[in-house]
Design goal:
Length: about 550
């Protein structure tokens, strides 16, 4: 059944007989309309409806148990929906959309009935679904203010695409009158009556609502703000780990509502949310590495310059050198956050048998910890490089689990130094089959998820195709990791570019890429400007050795 607004005189009479706290007062014997908001019982609720009417209803169901007053705006009417959002947030009641017939009409009427709505504020319409009394108002700030008693401040026009952010920013205690930038001339007319008073519910301060920014969820965003929930617009991102702002928003939240059909399609949303909720962030912000970060690394082993520039100075000087090396890239890579990094050789290939007989010296964890922890304090990312000799990569990686359980530490595999059972270093170039690489992928991804850590970088060093046979079958299915091929060619620049092209010609799609500049072996070594201009496509990591 669809109710039409009564003429002003009749509506005012009915309100005077049944309400105490309308915009202009009324019968002192009746109380205000009751509103009860309630957080969802589940830690994560996904509102995945694709249609605006259904999304509005689902969000109302998720966040409100009762609302004697509800705001309704015509589906597809941008001006009425924005102003309806202002009214709903100011009153602290749900915003629903009127589909004007069809099954959606029944869904809206059913939700109004569930809420116990006795009065509907119809913005930009004369009627509303269901049996509640209707107070109709044109989509003008003055008319809405007259019907609600709200003091709606003037706001800048809302640009196309900015609706979700504008509604998310509404302050329930001081709402503004939202209007579209490209709206038509202001509607004419007056309110058909005044709403009863509304007793706001206790705000859902422990609830965070994530909106992907889809205009289809606009009414849902308004309902969330009306309930007192924090709304974070993700600008289309459905992985809550990506944005530093989202990580900050969900950290410590009791419940999260993901508003938008895209969230339902995000594989692993539950564990990604639990990871984001830790609040731990990568150097540079967020919990996902690329494309929002660009790493510039020093390579070597602490305490010796023989293995790279990282070990040529003490810890404080190494931190400063990493910052100085990364700094020139900030102007060259304006679309990403430039992050200094260390690639620390944790296990060093040995020409002679070591204690375990694997021809690899494993630096003690406590020997590396001071540099690793100093890096974390300085906002520097760390990669631990393994040169395993005759043992396997997973066995060596397990040694460094205490360091890999830190949020800013990733792992690198150096197949050049992976020997067969009877091989020794410097008589051949080592290699690792893709099956062993994928065992590392599984091990490191499991460690990352179990400890709710930000995404980790897994680097595969390579300068010949046969160093990683079957590389096109590397497992890229684990979102806990970003798997990178690091092109380690040295010498004349044409030769390095040939190596780059050949390695990039091998799959799989979805790898990230690193490039190495050698101070002594390159002829010549590229400057930062030349690196960005000549290495194409642009790598995500540039390492200096």
């Amino acid at each position: 059944m669809r109710h039409r607004a009564a003429p002003l005189a009749v509506s005012a009479l009915l309100l005077a007989a049944g309400c105490t706290s309308s915009a202009s007062g009324g019968d002192d014997d009746a109380g205000p309309a009751s509103v009860t908001a309630a957080a969802p019982a589940e830690r994560l609720t996904v509102v995945a409806d694709a249609e605006p009417v259904a999304t509005a209803v689902s969000t109302s169901r998720a966040l409100f148990e009762e609302a004697g007053v509800v705001v309704v705006a015509p589906d597809g009417d941008r001006a009425a929906t924005l102003l309806g959002a202002s009214a709903a947030v100011g009153l602290g009641v749900p915003l629903l959309l009127d589909p004007e017939g069809g099954d959606g009409d029944d869904a809206v009427a059913g939700e109004l009935d569930r809420l116990g709505a006795t009065t509907v504020l119809a913005v930009g319409a004369d009627t509303a679904p269901g049996d509640a009394d209707v107070v109709s108002v044109p989509a003008t700030a003055d008319a809405v203010a007259a019907a609600t008693g709200l003091d709606l401040a003037e706001a800048d026009p809302v640009a196309d695409g900015g609706e979700a952010a504008a509604v998310a920013a509404l302050d329930p205690d001081a709402p503004t009158a939202l209007r579209p930038e490209d709206g038509d001339e202001a509607a004419e007319g007056e309110a058909s009556g005044e709403l009863p008073g509304v007793e706001r519910a206790e705000p859902l301060e422990g609830t965070v609502v994530l909106s992907d920014g889809d205009p289809a969820a606009l009414a849902g965003v308004a309902t969330a703000r009306a309930a007192g929930a924090t709304v974070q617009v993700t600008d289309g991102q459905t992985d809550p780990r990506v944005s530093a702002d989202v990580v900050d928003a969900v950290a410590g939240a009791d419940t999260v509502v993901a508003l938008g059909a895209g969230f339902a399609a995000e594989d692993g949303l539950d564990w990604k949310l639990e990871t984001a909720a830790t609040g731990a962030q990568l150097p540079g912000g967020g919990q996902v590495l690329f494309p929002q970060h660009f790493l510039v690394a020093l390579y070597g082993h602490p305490g010796t310059g023989a293995l790279g520039v990282l070990g040529e100075q003490d810890v404080p000087a190494t931190v400063q050198r990493a910052r100085d090396t990364a700094a020139p890239y900030e102007a060259l890579v304006p679309d990403a956050t430039v992050v200094p990094a260390f690639e620390i050789i944790a296990t060093v290939a040995s020409e002679f048998p070591t204690e375990g007989g694997d021809y690899s010296y494993e630096a003690p964890v406590e020997e590396l910890r001071p540099l690793v922890e100093a890096a974390g304090e300085a906002g520097i990312y760390v990669v631990l490089d393994l040169q395993p000799g005759r043992t396997d990569f997973v066995t060596q990686a397990e040694v460094y689990r205490p360091l890999l359980e830190l949020p800013h530490v990733g792992l690198a595999l150096d197949p050049e130094w992976r020997l067969g059972p009877n091989e020794v270093h410097l008589t051949q170039i080592g290699s690792v089959d893709v099956e062993e690489v994928n065992r590392v992928v599984t091990w490191l991804a499991d460690l990352t998820r179990e400890n709710r850590l930000p995404q980790k970088l897994l680097v595969l060093h390579q300068f010949r195709v046969d160093m990683i046979p079957g590389r096109e079958r590397v497992d890229l299915s684990r979102d806990e990791l970003s798997v990178m091929v690091h092109a380690d060619g040295q010498g004349p620049q044409p030769s390095k570019q040939d190596t780059w092209r050949v390695l990039r010609g091998i799959g799989p799609e979805g790898l990230t890429w690193g490039w190495k500049n050698f101070y002594d072996e390159d002829a010549p070594m590229l400057t930062p400007e030349e690196t960005i201009a000549q290495v194409s496509p642009r790598p995500e990591l540039v390492t200096y050795q």
